[in-house]
Design a protein that fits this description.
By secondary structure, the protein is an alpha/beta fold. The strands form three sheets. Strands 16-15-14-13-7-12-11-8-17 form a nine-stranded mixed β-sheet. It has a six-stranded parallel β-sheet with strand order 3-2-1-4-5-6, sandwiched between helices. It has eleven helices and 17 strands. Bound molecules: nicotinamide-adenine-dinucleotide.
């Protein structure tokens, strides 16, 4: 494999793949040769390239991971497919639904394996929740509610390329973390979001943009030089939802919510029971009942459905976490590639494709259109 972009999440791609044991970490591409060399040394990759084009020209790279800022997702993914490489892109798949659709069509035509890192799918209890909904344990879902909240953009000194539309896209919080929530809700419930009504807000309207580059989640130093810039994209949003079975829902995203670090929560209320999974307590599922005491299922392979067991690698009481789920995702994707499967073959559960990435782009675009129209119900066009 070769990776383009080794900032915050890139090294986690490498770590997750290395744990599989049968994939060579061939190369890293950075924005300059010097930065790529530094990253390659840190990650333990054999080769360093100063451009993604150079990495794509390396015949030993068979799978390309794209962990660059959003505006580079389309060009890097498209160039990798054009070279006949399999592509694992970070989310959002592209800056717009139209670009995401082009990538899906291009990858399908080229016959390369395509994946998007909706990594929460790799959690054993997410798979357990999905299987329990599918086998009818909570009855018919009628309400899906939750949030994805963080606090790393709470201060006006916090800054990221995610806040610049030309680098992050027309949406910030929704595209960055709302895309994860929407994928998770649809993945666990098996339902599709058909209509949205969005209310979006920019809480911090002016930020101190550091003059020197800073990577994601890196706090400002007290003496950092900055320029004051206007922020046009949302750092907070609330969205009402309608699903294809008639279920209703709502979720909020915010990156200005103190105390919430990476707080993803999804609750599905069904005709029999309710199920809740929360990323910050990811080794538990809560079940709410009307006629008997509520229950908590603690992750323990012996208590999981057989199809969920393979996502759990430690016995009960041994906590599994974000990086383990990320590695499960890679296990599903690389297993698929190693077995020589075609993109049209059935995919393992945790494996999200460019089609899932495209769908998430469509939902986010519909939310932005709804908010722009004065928060009106808007159909998602896929
Ligand atoms: N799946 C997840 O949970 C998750 C988590 C974090 C980030 N992400 C996604 O991953 C992507 C990267 O996010 P991040 O937080 O790691 O950002 P980051 O800014 O920390 O890292 C991006 C890296 O890309 C490099 N880069 C920039 N231009 C480049 C170029 N032309 N060629 C090669 N490298 C280049 C930068 O130098 C930097 O090292 C984003 O699209 C983000 O949405 C996903």
């Amino acid at each position: 494999m070769g990776i383009v972009g080794a900032g915050f999440v890139g090294p986690h791609h490498v770590d997750a793949v290395r744990r599989l044991g049968y994939v060579d970490i061939v190369a890293v591409a950075g924005s300059t040769e010097a930065s790529a060399k530094k990253k390659a040394d840190a990650i333990g990759a054999a080769r360093a390239y100063g451009s993604y084009e150079a990495l794509l020209a390396d015949p030993d790279v068979q799978v390309v991971h794209n962990a660059t800022p959003n505006y580079l997702h389309y060009p890097v993914n498209a160039a990798a497919i054009a070279k006949g490489k399999h592509v694992i892109s970070d989310k959002p798949l592209a800056m717009t639904a139209a670009e995401a659709k082009k990538l899906l069509d291009q990858a399908t035509k080229a016959g390369v394996v395509h994946a998007v890192t909706f990594n929460y799918r790799g959690n054993p209890l997410v798979q357990q929740a999905r299987l329990q909904v599918a086998r009818g344990d909570i009855g018919t879902p009628h309400f899906l509610v939750g949030y994805y909240l963080q606090d790393w953009l709470l201060k006006d000194t916090d800054y990221s390329w995610r806040l610049e539309p030309d680098k992050g896209g027309a949406s910030s919080a929704l595209g960055d973390i709302g895309s994860h929530w929407c994928d998770l809700a649809q993945h666990i419930s098996g339902l599709r979001i058909t209509h949205v009504l969005g209310d979006i807000t920019t809480v911090i309207k002016k930020r101190k943009k550091p003059t020197a580059a800073r990577e994601a989640f890196q706090a400002a130093g007290t003496n950092d030089a900055f320029e004051l810039v206007d922020i046009k994209v949302e750092d907070l949003a609330s969205v009402m939802l309608r699903f294809d079975n008639g279920a209703k829902g709502c979720f909020s995203v915010g990156q200005v919510c103190a105390g919430h670090k990476n707080d993803v929560e999804l609750e599905i209320c069904g005709s029999k029971s309710t199920l809740k999974w929360r990323q910050e307590q990811q080794n538990e599922i809560w079940f709410g009942h009307r006629d008997k005491p509520n229950e908590i299922l603690m992750k323990d392979p012996s208590l999981l459905a057989p199809e969920a067991q393979r996502y759990a690698h430690l016995p009960g009481g041994h906590q599994e976490a974000w990086a383990d789920a990320f590695s499960n995702l890679m296990r599903d994707i690389y297993g698929f590639i190693a077995e020589g499967k075609k993109p049209s073959d059935p995919h393992p559960a945790a494996f999200a494709t460019f089609e899932d990435g495209y769908r998430a782009n469509c939902v986010i675009e519909a939310i932005l259109a709804s908010a722009k129209a004065g928060s009106t119900w808007t159909q998602v066009s896929y």
